[in-house]
């Protein structure tokens, strides 16, 4: 019966809507993408929150308004100036007022977007006084992390994707790694990022961090996670055949837990020396 079919279709629609809502509620706390998610992953740093505000509260309304305005104009022209409604067309070719308006208005819109955009870029790239520094090196196809000696570290380790056969309960397919980067909560973490072979990109959405890993160059970014948890990201520069299999996992823990992890990590990764903290201003000269 058509009625039944309608009922089934409606049920399917509601089920899809339900999983959308559930997916998005889950995404708010997950630290990784979830099925049916739309929108961003949870923001756990002030910069990620700024990115969300910029997209959701500024750009999106402007885009919607422009689309509605242009669609409205098109419809108006279609109905008002079609052959039947307007048999004798105007011969006008220029209208100075109109030319000025459609030049000035887009410029104004772009200026409104540019001001917070540059403010955001500045906040991402001007690093406040760092509490800890970690160096990430992108390699084909995994990441290495170096905790410098002079910051109570002195070790380096590789962070490699876990094979599906090694996944433990709570692990995530294609995102969990054998050794996570561990950082303390509410501390400014300076990430120094470079590439060992080709260009990679160190990106963790929840932290609002995105920086390229370029061989011969030490790029810097920072984050200050305001909540404990594990936050996942992925290499975001196409870097070869296993580009999709070099995720990033950042575990944010309390300060005592971080101190305890440092002690363990020093023993666990004892064979790797770790370098001294590199000053980006001097190492940037390595570029060419
Ligand atoms: Cu890649």
Automatic annotation (TrEMBL):
Keywords for this protein: Copper, Electron transport, Membrane, Metal-binding, Respiratory chain, Signal, Translocase, Transmembrane, Transmembrane helix, Transport
GO cellular component, one term: plasma membrane
TM helices/strands, residue ranges: 58-79, 100-121
Cytochrome oxidase subunit II transmembrane region profile domain segment(s): 32-128
Membrane topology recorded in Swiss-Prot or TrEMBL: Multi-pass membrane protein
Required co-factors: Cu cation; heme
CDD domains: CcO_II_C (cd13912)
Subcellular location: Cell membrane; Membrane
Every Cytochrome oxidase subunit II copper A binding domain range: 129-264
Gene3D superfamilies noted in UniProt: 1.10.287.90, Cupredoxins - blue copper proteins (2.60.40.420)
SUPFAM superfamilies in alphabetical order: Cupredoxins, Cytochrome c oxidase subunit II-like, transmembrane region
Functional description taken from the UniProt entry: Subunits I and II form the functional core of the enzyme complex. Electrons originating in cytochrome c are transferred via heme a and Cu(A) to the binuclear center formed by heme a3 and Cu(B).
Stated family: Belongs to the cytochrome c oxidase subunit 2 family.
Name the record gives this protein: Cytochrome c oxidase subunit 2
Annotated source species: Lichenifustis flavocetrariae
Gene behind this protein: coxB
């Amino acid at each position: 019966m058509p009625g039944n079919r309608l009922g089934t279709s409606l049920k399917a629609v509601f089920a899809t809507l339900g999983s959308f809502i559930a997916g998005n509620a889950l995404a708010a706390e997950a630290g990784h993408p979830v099925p049916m998610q739309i929108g961003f992953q949870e923001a756990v740093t002030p910069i990620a929150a700024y990115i969300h505000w910029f997209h959701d509260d500024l750009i999106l309304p402007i885009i919607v308004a422009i689309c509605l305005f242009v669609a409205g104009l098109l419809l108006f022209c279609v109905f008002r100036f079609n052959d039947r409604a307007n048999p004798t067309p105007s011969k006008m070719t220029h209208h100075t007022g109109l030319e000025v308006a459609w030049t000035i208005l887009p410029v104004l819109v772009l200026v409104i977007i540019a001001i917070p955009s540059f403010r955001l870029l500045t906040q991402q790239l001007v690093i406040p006084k760092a509490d800890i520094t970690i160096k990430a090196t992108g390699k084909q196809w995994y990441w290495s992390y170096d905790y410098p000696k002079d910051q109570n570290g002195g070790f380096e380790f590789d962070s490699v994707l876990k094979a599906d056969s090694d996944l433990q309960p709570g692990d995530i397919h294609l995102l969990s790694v054998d050794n996570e980067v561990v950082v303390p909560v509410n501390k400014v973490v300076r990430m120094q990022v470079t590439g060992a072979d080709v260009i990679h990109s160190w990106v963790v959405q929840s932290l609002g961090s995105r920086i390229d890993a370029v061989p011969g160059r030490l790029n810097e970014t920072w984050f200050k996670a305001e909540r404990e948890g594990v936050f996942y990201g992925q290499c975001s520069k196409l870097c070869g055949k296993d580009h999709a299999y070099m995720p990033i996992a950042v575990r944010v823990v309390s300060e005592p837990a971080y101190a305890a992890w440092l002690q363990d990590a020093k023993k666990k990764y004892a064979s790797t020396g770790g370098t001294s903290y590199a000053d980006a201003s001097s190492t940037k000269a390595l570029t060419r």
